[in-house]
Amino acid sequence: MSNNQFKRGELYSFITGKASTAIARRLQKKFNSANLNLTIEQWSVLYHLWKQDGISQQELCNASFRDKPSITRLVDNLEKLQLVKRVPSESDRRMNMIYLTKQAQKLQEQSMDLANETLNEALEGVSPERIDICREVLQIVYDNLK
Amino acid sequence: MSNNQFKRGELYSFITGKASTAIARRLQKKFNSANLNLTIEQWSVLYHLWKQDGISQQELCNASFRDKPSITRLVDNLEKLQLVKRVPSESDRRMNMIYLTKQAQKLQEQSMDLANETLNEALEGVSPERIDICREVLQIVYDNLK
DNA sequence: GACATATAGTTGCTTATACAACTATCCAAA
DNA sequence: TTTGGATAGTTGTATAAGCAACTATATGTC
Predict the structure, then answer these.
(1) B92: helix, coil or strand?
(2) Where, if anywhere, are coiled coils annotated (chains A, B) (predicted)?
């Protein structure tokens, strides 16, 4: 310690992700209050499908930075909730393409509003410039380690 | 969206904490390679005890931003690993004071070195000024929501 | 075409988190 | 001194992550 003056005391919270934990908890509470029967993790999978529907589980792994078993089980649970459907690929029978149901499409606007609301609360009092720097630093961290 | 120009696409990774997940995975791999039989979560509890030994489970909850059941079970597992001991408080019989064992004291230096190494890898190419801004933003986020 | 290798997905096991409900103890006010 | 509320910790249940081992399918090479 330390070629970049990182203070030991704050190192710890960087690793454990206290900030993102706090955001996720707040968002989960908003989901619960709105009677969206949905975990943040499930929502994060839907988020990628709202961007592009009908992608494979492997693509969901890459997009959501999760391993294959995690996606298998998240898709299991999302299927139970009737929010997605597994459709075997015709061109490659190893693959499942995951499609949103109409019910899931209906959730997009409300849940994204709650997510934006949460982020606004989280970032209250932080200037756009500083948010941008923070975002860039977190992106570099991710690229350095992924 | 958006009184602070937060871009939707990056909003998501802020919430899911991709950066802190990447850091934690890297550190866990270093622990495994070094044959430290220790999870990141267990390490984060030890971290607070290295700062101050003999605190209560409730104080560990506050320090590590976890709820009581999480700490109960982490302390359970740390006791099984013979890294901490529960000692009933004499002044308040509801409380357990948690003490490090000698074995846990030995882990401090090696594990902190690996944590610092991980952070240096994570933050490679980021200027101290930008790290500092990022740290401050994450602290504000935490304070806004906690 | 046969075979080795890679890829997509699943299952089993362990650890951790979140929430609710519970026990035990403490403390303060009547 | 009793009683009611607060606090410390535990337990049950559900969801999720990480890792290894597994099946099925695809692909490239001989």
Answers:
(1) coil
(2) none
| pLDDT tens by residue, chain B, 146 residues | 443 444 556 666 777 789 999 999 999 999 999 999 999 999 999 999 999 999 999 999 999 999 999 999 999 999 999 999 999 999 999 999 999 999 999 999 999 999 999 999 999 999 999 999 999 999 999 999 98
| Contact residues for A136 (Cβ-Cβ < 8 A; gap 6+) | B130
- Which domain range does residue B23 map to? 1-35
Residue B127 inside a domain? The answer is no
Tell whether pTM > 0.85: yes
**Which alpha helices (DSSP H) does chain B contain, by range?**
8-16, 18-33, 40-51, 57-64, 68-80, 102-122, 128-145
The answer on B69 and B14 residing in a single domain is no
Name the minimum distance, in Å, from the CA of A22 to any CA of chain B.
6
